[in-house]
Amino acid sequence: MKQYLKLDDWSVIEEDFNPEHHEISESVFSIGNGHMGQRANFEETYSGSSLQGSYMAGVYYPDKTRVGWWKNGYPEYFAKVLNSTNWIGLKVVIDNEELDLNIAKVSDFVRELNMKEGYLKRSFTAELSGGKKIKVATCRFVSMKVREAGALRYAITPLNFDGELTLTSYLDGDVKNTDANYDEKFWDPVDETVSNESATVIIKTKKLNFHMASTMINEYFQNGQKLTPEVKVAKREKYTSQEVVLPLKQNEETSVVKVAANVTNRDHDTSSLGEVAQRVCRSAMEKGFDRLLSEQKEAWAKKWETSDIVIEGDVSAQQGIRFNIFQLNQTYTGEDDRLNIGPKGFTGEKYGGSTYWDTEAYCLPFYLSTSDQNIARNLLVYRYKHLEKARENARKLGFTKGALYPMVTMNGEECHNEWEITFEEIHRNGAIAYAIYNYVNYTADRDYLGEYGVEVLAEISRFWEERVHFVNPKAVYMMHGVTGPNEYENNVNNNWYTNRIAAWTLEYTLEALAHVNETDPKRYEALINKLDLTEEETSKWSDIIDKMYYPVDEESGIFLQQDGYMDKEQIHVSELDEKHLPLNQNWSWDRILRSCFIKQADVLQGLYFLNSEFDIETKKRNFDFYEPRTVHESSLSPCVHSILACELGYREKAYEMYLRTARLDLDNYNNDTEDGCHTTSMAGTWMSVVHGFGGLKVQSDRLVLNPFIPGQWNAFSFKVLYRKARLNVQVTKEQVVVRNETDEKVDLTIGEEQFTLEGKEEIRTAMKK
Ligand code: BGC
Asked: Model's pTM, two decimal places?
C-alpha cells in the first residue's frame, strides 16, 4: 500500500513529484468523458517509466490469440483497447535544452485532479542543467459537453533568466499498445495534413477498418496577449507538428492553448472524417479555453447533482467515494448504447474487451440509481443484441441449444482465452439473468420482460438445462468442471454459487414467462413460438430447480464453495506472513490453486444477490467462515463483504472493507494500479455506501432503507433516482432524513416503519440504536 496522495474532499492531489509512483499516478489522475479518455501522461517529454495511453471508446483491435497450447473452442482473437493518437504532446525546449522531468531538478510539484469540475492541473518548478529555472502550470480536460474535443493550457514562466522557447506541439498516431501479442503496431497511416492554422492525422486500424482523425489547433499567449508567431510545420507518417520559437522574459508567462478533436468512423463517414475533425476542433477553439472549461464545470455540476455522496467527518472515505463516482461518470455516460463499461475504463490497457460480468453484477445498480432509467435499460438491451452471438458461442462449445454469454467481449463474441475461465466461468450467464431481475424490480418496468427480457432468460435457462447432468443414484442435478467467481480454484465440481444462480435463473425465467402470459397473452404466444419453447422444457426446468444439488458442510451448515473444499488445508489469511500478499504476485499458480484462499466473494456473492432467501444466521455463519479465508485480490470482492458486514452489524469490518474498496486505487491496495484503475469495482464502492451503510433495497415495490453509520463518520448522505422520484437520504448518528426532491410519491420503509413520502415532502425518523 502506497499512501502518497493528499487527502481532500473534492480533489486528488499529489504534492512533490514521486517518480517511483509515476505510473500509478498516471492511472489515478486519468481523465475521460465517455467518448474518449487518457492516462495522466505528461504533455512534455518524459524519459522515465511511463505507460502511454489515450483511448477512444469502442475502438479496439482483435489481436490474434496467442497461447502455448491451442484448445478447441478458443476464440480467434482477444479484443484490445487501443492506445491511439497522442494529442497532448508538446516538446518544450528552453535555449536548446529539452524539458524532461526525469532529468530536470523538480520542486514545488503539485498535481491535482479536480473531480468537482472535471479537470487535471499540474504545476512545478524545474531547474535545467545550467541552473535556469522555469515555472510551469498546466490544465487539461476532455470535454463533457463537446465529447469529441479536449483542451489544454500549458504556461511557462522563466524565473531567473531571459531566453528562448522552442515549442513543438504535435499529434502522434505512431503509438503502440504495451500489450500486443505479436509486438506489432495496430495503426496504419491514412493521411497527414498540416498548415499554420491546424494539423490533422488520420490513422486506421490494421484490422476492422476503424478510422480515427485528430485535428489540433494551437494558440500562443504572452502576458495575456495573443501572439501570431511564425509556425514551422512538419509531418511524417502518422505524425504532424507545429513548431514556434518564442522569446522568454524573466517572470513573464508564455502559454499555449491546444485544442484537439478526436473523431472516429464509429460516428461519422470514413470519407469525411478529416473534415469533421477540423470542424469540431475549429468550433471548440472558437469557444476558447475558458469557455470550454466553464462548460466543463457546468456539465460536472449536473453529474454530481444526481450522483454525489457526502460523508462528513472522514476525508479519506469522502475522497474515496468521490473518486470512484468520478471515474464511473467519466467512463460511461450511457449516450451511446453500443458501449459498455470496461474494467479499466480509460485508464489502462489491461483486460482488453469492454464487457465483463462486472457490468451486470456491479455497475448496473450505480447507473440505475444515479442516471435516467434508460441508461440501465440500454445496458440490458446491449446483451439482448448479443443474444445471437451468445447462441453461437454455446454451439461452438458443443451445446445443442441455449446461449452462453462471453466472459469478455467487445461485440458479443467471446474473446477470452484461458480455458478455465472461457469455458468454465459460466456463472456470468447467471449475472446477466440477475441484472434483468434487478432492473425490473428496481424500476417496475415489467414490460421489459415481454419486450426483451424473457428471450435472454429462456436462452440462458436452456444453457443451464444442458450444462447440468442428472446423477441417478442420488437423484440430483450437478454441474461439474466449472470455475466460480473465485478464480483461485478451477475446474471444480458443484460450485455452490454457480449451481444456485443457475437454479435461480430457471425460477425467475418461469416467473417472467408467467408474468408475460398473464399481462400480455398475445406477446406470450409470440414469444413461445419465436423461442419454440415446449412444455417439456419448462417442466425439465422445474425438475432441475427441485433437484439441484448444493454442497453443504453437514457439521457446520456452511454452503461449501465446491465439493471437497473442506478437505483442503484450512488456514486464515491472518496466519500468513504479510510478505506473501498479494498471493498472485508472490505464490506460484499451483500453490494458489491448492490453497483454501479465496480471491473474491463467491458463496458470499450468492448471499448478496439472493439476499432475501437466507436468514441472518445463515448469512452470519457463511460470512464468519469465508471472510477470514478471502484475500480480496479481485477488486470486486471487498464491496460485497462490506455490504454483508453492514447487514450483520459487523461495523468495524464493514468500514474496513469499505475503505479497501473506496481507496483501492488511491492507496494501491493490490499493488497493480499502475496498469490502470479498477473502474468496474468502483460501482461496488457506491453499492457499499448505498446498499451497505444505507441498507437500500427494493422489496415488493417499496423502497427499503436500513441505515447504519460507521463510528468514524458524523453523517453521510446520498441521492437516488427511484422510479420517477429523486430522493435525498441523509443519515446522522441520531436520525435519518429523507427528502423527496420531486413531485412523485414514494412508498418507503425505514427500518420497521412504513411511510408514504409525498412529493417534496421530508420525513425524519430516529436512528435505531
Ligand atoms: C475477476 C473477475 C472480473 C475481472 C475483470 C478478474 O480479476 O476475477 O471476476 O470479471 O477481473 O474485472
From this structure: 0.97
